[in-house]
Design a protein that fits this description.
CATH class of the domain at 68-180 and 202-287: Alpha Beta
CATH architecture of the domain at 68-180 and 202-287: 3-Layer(aba) Sandwich
Distance between the termini: 115 Å
Helix content: 25-40%
Strand content: 5-15%
Largest sheet: 6 strands, mixed
Structural class: alpha/beta
CATH topology of the domain at 68-180 and 202-287: Aminopeptidase
CATH superfamily of the domain at 68-180 and 202-287: Zn-dependent exopeptidases
Number of helices: 8
Shape: elongated
Amino acid sequence: MRRALLILGIFIAPLAVFAAMVAADRTFGGPGRGYGYVVQVKLPGDDARQGLPPVRGPQDASRPLVVIDPGHGGKDPGAGNGALKEKDLVLRLALALRDELLRQGGIRVAMTREDDRYLLLPVRPDIARRLQADLFISIHADSTEVGTGARGATVYVLSDRGSNEAAERIAARENAADEINGIRMADTSNSVGAILVDLSQREMQAKAESFGRLILREGQGRLPFRDEGVQSAAFAVLKAPDVPSILFESGYINNEEDAARLASPAGQQAFAQSLASAVRVHFAREAAPAPLLP
């Protein structure tokens, strides 16, 4: 009898130890063990996984897409006038334009930044290219030496050289945003000449110039302009070869009249309505069938 119990104990003891281990694991085990323990992980959307900003507006890829780029941001404040910093001012202008385009409907909108963050210059047009944007608008505020009396907005497109000395100076200042103590922050192998317009970019250049003229037309009576025509300069932020791109200097931040206008709700509304009107006309022209040749 004792021998039978001994043999039975040899088989039962390991089973009892295993059962005790399972019970302890369910009671005291770490995450992922036992039954009834579920971990839910919220996966990011497609744009977030790709490092791209959200696209707002109609969820229809056939609708035109505008990428709005508020210049500067984060550790790069841009120009300033006391407490008024370019990076903050142009962000408010960009948000006003975004809201006006979305209010009118029919157009998708994305922004390179919606808060106070720093972006390298090459990242800004790259966002437009990766989103396959139909239009890229970079918004800035100019500055000049006190006492010159300079005021008003200016529309720029990319060129192999500035249309005048002032354009070259402004382009040099904006391009320096990627430098600290003269050292380039972006690790790019291309020289300045790589961003200039060549024959393959002429179609985008023509579209950008046409859109720039629409801004001047739609802004008449609502926005003061320093120059009557579209200007050109070698802005690095306009280097996307397959997206019509303009840089809009909204005014002179150290001119009291311009600063007051741009910082006011009425001035920001006038800016947003003028550019939104130009955007809509631009896309209406793009959608119109080409005239038949005789």
